[in-house]
Specification:
Radius of gyration: 19 Å
Distance between the termini: 43 Å
Shape: globular
Number of domains: 2
Strand order of the largest sheet: 1-2-3-5-4
Length: 240
């Protein structure tokens, strides 16, 4: 059965001489893997640039129950991403965020609000003139709300430690090792105020950003299922 929907490209890998597999997060079906004909001839049906990470597409797709690989009948770009394909910092952010989403999102996550957040984030990353180095931090902090793992900030002003496992502040250091100390917990309060509109105001060093990313990834690992290390993280550390 054919469906019209929207999708955001997460990854595309070779499958055979004639096909690739592209993984998209779609508005109507959540995360889906599609069998994609590889470009041949002077007028290929789908160009490789159409399926680079974080490209937002209009789609006509074929979905059949119990089939692991669905098929794309037609695809077109919703809007150009000029800066994401030409600036190294944004390119590294693109690959990091696409890999992050491919690990966090699932087929059941067909959530309209989540899709709109991701779509708006892609447009913002391409258009932003200031604070691009902090974009992934603002993105990850905002994403927590749509994943249903938003930290509980109640008591933040009175409690000194943030428990990463419980997702809340405590008055005493937890007995396990997954928590932020008093200084880190106080900094977390400031970071929770970060969004795309003010991310340029947070003056962070590369080292500070890397530490923040490590704790955010640890938080994801504690609150989501099967979250492995990200291959793109080392590149991000060098360029962000």
């Amino acid at each position: 059965m054919l469906h019209k929907t929207e999708g955001i490209v997460l990854s595309t890998i070779p499958y055979s001489d004639t096909y690739a597999i592209t993984q998209l997060f779609t508005l109507d079906f959540g995360k889906v893997s599609y069998l994609l004909p590889r470009s041949r001839g002077r007028r290929p049906r789908f160009t490789p640039s159409l399926f680079t990470p974080l490209t937002v597409l209009w789609l006509e797709v074929e979905h059949k129950p119990l089939r692991d690989l669905q098929r794309i009948r037609d695809a077109s770009r919703q809007f150009p991403l000029n800066n994401l394909s030409s600036q190294m910092t944004r390119i590294s952010l693109t690959f990091f965020l696409a890999e992050l989403l491919s690990r966090l999102l699932h087929e059941s996550d067909h959530n309209g609000l989540l899709f709109e957040y991701l779509k708006n984030s892609v447009e913002t990353l391409d258009a932003a003139n200031r604070g691009v180095a902090n974009f992934h931090l603002a993105f990850m902090i905002g994403l927590n709300r749509y994943l249903g793992i938003l930290p509980n900030m109640n008591g933040a002003g009175h409690c000194g430690y943030f428990d990463l496992m419980q997702g809340e502040f405590t008055t005493h250091a937890p007995l396990h090792t997954h928590y932020l100390n008093r200084e880190q917990s106080a900094f977390l309060l400031q970071l929770q105020r970060m969004h795309y509109g003010n991310m340029h105001l947070f003056r962070l060093t590369r080292s500070q950003r890397n530490v923040i990313v490590d704790y955010l990834l640890e938080y994801y690992r504690l609150h989501t299922y099967d979250f492995p290390p990200l291959k793109s993280l080392d590149i991000l550390r060098e360029l962000s």
